[in-house]
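Title: Prediction job returns without error message
Component: structure pipeline
Severity: low
Priority: P3
Assignee: unassigned

Description:
Job completed but the reporter wants confirmation the result is attached to the right record. Sequence as submitted:
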Amino acid sequence: LNGENDLNLEQVDRVSDYFEMSVEESEFLILLNQENRAGSKSLRQKLSKMIEESKSRNTRLNKKLAITDQISLEDQTVYYSH
């Protein structure tokens, strides 16, 4: 196959359903897809700004909720003791 292979919105929707993405994750995936498919520089820039705002909201929420990617030593001890 030659050329670009873009997903349409229905395919993006199916991917998000398959991976059981949250509404926010699905919205982000749709934005990424639309940015990739954008035909004009202006639209691409608007979508890029929307993507950055979404990432910023997510970062602020993670900080506010003190979400980390690590499990505390105490929780690890309890988990592995069973």
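Comment from assignee: result matches the submitted record. The helical segments are 9-18, 23-37, 41-65, 73-80.
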